[in-house]
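# nightly structure sweep
# worker-07 picked up a monomer target from the shared queue
# config: single-sequence mode, recycle default, output format = structure tokens
# input follows
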Amino acid sequence: MKIATSVFQGSCPDLASCPKSVLPEFALIGRSNVGKSSLVNMLTRSEGLAKVSQIPGKTQLINFFTINGAWNLVDLPGYGFAKVGKAERGGFSTMVADYLQNRSSLVGTFVLIDARLSPQALDLEFLRWMVGCGLAFILVFTKTDSLSKTAVQKNIGVFLSAMGGITEEPPAYVLSSAKEGVGRREILALIDSALSEIGGS
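# output follows
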């Protein structure tokens, strides 16, 4: 897939405020500071399209980016904010749950996992919720450039083993590095395939 145009459409505080778009949507979700904004910029090759911050929890709204005028890439707030109160954190959880469960134009969800870390309780808790709701997803292991290939594969193996307690079928996954552009072709190919299925249905 070639991306010719990528336009930031706006940010919304909840599902009710989201644009009534007929375009298919693909969402990015993950723990705070996992690299969602960096992935948006890498996929679109538009540095600065999504604001990247070193402060966990900076993305607190649902951000919409229209790609090629044909589909939306949606950057959802991260779960597990370090700098906000419990009341606000609960609000973000409701926002994300409402979008993922009730957004009719949502076609696919990419759950980002930091490849540098051992399985995190927040990630597993969120994925358990996704499976419990019957929501499909693809894992994207980010920041793979920070470790050796052996270390990355070891961490992924441990994570997939932990996922065995959540789902019987091993989840599909992609390796990604926003810094090196790793995973861009694979993620866009998955989106392209999903769009083709919609067009053929």
